[in-house]
Amino acid sequence: MKALEPTLYDKSVPDRKGITLPELDVPLSEMDAALLRDDLALPELGELQVVRHFTRLSQLNHAIDLDLYPLGSCTMKYNPRLNEDVARLPGLAALHPLTDDEGSQGALALMFQLQDWLAELSGMTAVSLQPAAGAQGELAGILMIRAYHQQRGDTQRDIVLVPNSAHGTNPATVTMAGYRAVELPSDENGDVDLNALRAACNDQVAGMMITVPSTLGLFEAHVLEVVEAVHNCGGLMYMDGANMNALMGVVKPAELGFDVMHYNLHKTMSTPHGGGGPGSGPVAVNEKLAPFLPGPIVVVDEGADEDEEAPRYSLQMPEHSIGRLKAFHGNFGMHIRAFAYMSIYGASGLHEVSKHAVLNANYIRANLADTYLIPYPRMCAHECVISGQIRGAEEVHALDISKRLMDYGFHPPTNYFPLIVPEALMIEPTESEDKATLDRFIDAMKEIAREAREEPDLLLTAPHRMPVKRLDEVKAAKELVLCCKPALPPSAAAGN
Amino acid sequence: MVYNLPEELRYAKTDEWLRIEGDTATIGITDYAQDMLNDIVYFELPEVGEDYGPDDNFGMVESVKAASDLYAHIQGTVTAVNEQLEDEPEIVNADPYDKGWIIQMSIEDASNLDALMNAAEYAAYLETR
Predict the structure, then answer these.
(1) pTM tops 0.80, yes or no
(2) For chain B, what is the radius of gyration of the CA atoms?
(3) Per CATH, the architecture of A349-478 is what?
(4) By CB distance 3.0 to 4.6 Å, which of A6, A120, A302, B41 could disulfide with A10?
């Protein structure tokens, strides 16, 4: 197969360099020969070849900067350019992570303010910005719950309840934290089955992880009863905040009774993701769990007189911290962008963001209801789940609809998740899109349903207008080639 | 959609089938399960000699769509594993009841079988999903 864009190794030319270093004007420092290796073959290219390579790759890709990216549960919202301007301010971008507290008061003030805003938005008492992504935030949350029980001597608890509409990372988190996940079924409305929950609640339960709104895009109708049932048996409640884009300024998780939650700054707070991020998954906790937060966190130094001068900030390890999750201060570059985003919108603006995210998802749901099966036909939150089973086109699957959507210029929705909906397509437009874009997407979905009935081959062999045709996903999954470990280029091979 | 559900097998809610022959059970996944999973790409399988209980998962099946646990449903010891699934997991898509069997186990407690469904009951259960 001819590659659309060869790898850098394929383009490598022996001895070509991007940079020519000047002659040494100091004595050459001898390096221990044992530290040198000659088997590391790096591609050799000029700067322009490298720039063109990555620019071409970027043109083969879809991005939020090109068109709608309705990848459900991922909140692929617009990343405001102002975030990037702020993150590039030299005082922030060039700050060395080993700079002491005195020399990094501005950065610490930013982190403190971000902690405070995230606490306010959740109603929680304290926040740690340490976790590098959502799944690490989850792990931090469950490790804190474990530390809380153990400190009280309540050591027989060994299970965590997880509804079947939860994020896939939730049971993985439970297992990594040393607990056993017990799955709870959903009722016919897509809510947690309360009878099954009450039957499962006992003194073995350390807590429950629940995604609000759920991966069905539904706000849990009995959330207060769920929280009460788990609290009554001594468990703590974890809220997976991946879907917080539906809730800002609408409801505070702490007021629903949750003890701990995580944010995904790369979702809700518009920091870039999809290209590897990096992510950021701060955890917010109530008073019970505050002493266990991963650290260090930023605190205001006691003793400084706030009336006379700016407060002094410092880094501090919480009293019974579960420890560090990340070197230095978490993904600080993402803290800057999230801080910028929250500053742009303010409290009322963030509330508007959530209202428009929910409105946009419901607009799509309502307009597709005549064309596609909506398994839970009620008001949805920030995303809607439809079924890709089209009446009169039984051979067509959700995957084929997704592939065909690419021909219309859209990124596909999330496929086959949540698992409890057959042929699920999970659509999250976010607040970033205007009505005209949503209408184009709705028209494309309707047109694809017509094609499915009248010209199914068009879907079964899609995409047709992409740089590559349908990829062989089975072959890709079965024949793992994890690294492009190159054949040694001639210059390096000659040295062996 | 009409699924192939052989009369002589026992079925579980988690979409495994069991073929009972004397004190040995052969276990696989149903036609419905392979259809829902779509193209199967990988099995994680136990070793011969390992013991499992009725609620234990003994392995995992992964497809292009999802990964799912496999449950034993009986108390017993693994007596055979279908080695062919290592290189050709797709035979379960093509032939879930014969070439696509997954493991064989000894049956140590026949009362475990009472919780399983017959073909008609499983077909009715699929209607509700």
Answers:
(1) yes
(2) 13
(3) Alpha-Beta Complex (3.90)
(4) A6
- Residue A201, CB half-sphere, CA atoms under 13 Å: how many? 21
Which pLDDT tens digits describe chain B residue by residue (129 residues)?
789 999 999 999 999 999 999 999 999 999 999 998 989 999 999 999 999 999 999 999 999 888 889 999 999 999 999 999 999 999 999 999 999 999 999 999 989 999 999 999 999 999 988
Q: Which residues neighbour A462 within 8 Å (Cβ) at sequence distance 6 or greater?
A: A400, A403, A404, A406, A407, A470
- Verify whether the Cβ–Cβ distance B39 to A419 is below 8 Å: no
Per residue in A371-390, pLDDT tens?
Answer: 999 999 999 999 999 999 99
**Architecture, CATH, for domain B11-109:** Beta Barrel (2.40)
| Chain B interface test: which of A460, A478, A479, A480 (most B C-beta within 10 Å) | A478
The pairing of strands A159-163 and A205-211 is: parallel
**Which residues, in sequence order, are CB contacts of A283 under 8 Å at separation 6+?**
A127, A128, A130, A131, A137, A140, A141, A144, A260, A261, A262, A293, A294
Taking the CA of residue B64 and the nearest CA in chain A, the distance in Å comes to 6
Please indicate if any CB of chain B lies within 8 Å of the CB of A478: yes
* Domain spans of chain A, in order of start: 83-342, 349-478
Q: Is this complex's ipTM strictly greater than 0.90? A: no
For domain A83-342, say whether CATH 3.30.980.10 is its number: no
Phi and psi at B27, nearest 5°, equal: -120, 140
According to DSSP, the residues that pair with A313 across neighbouring strands are A300
Q: What are the pLDDT digits (tens) for A85-101?
A: 999 999 999 999 999 99
Q: Which of B41, B65, B129 sits opposite A416 (nearest CB)?
A: B65
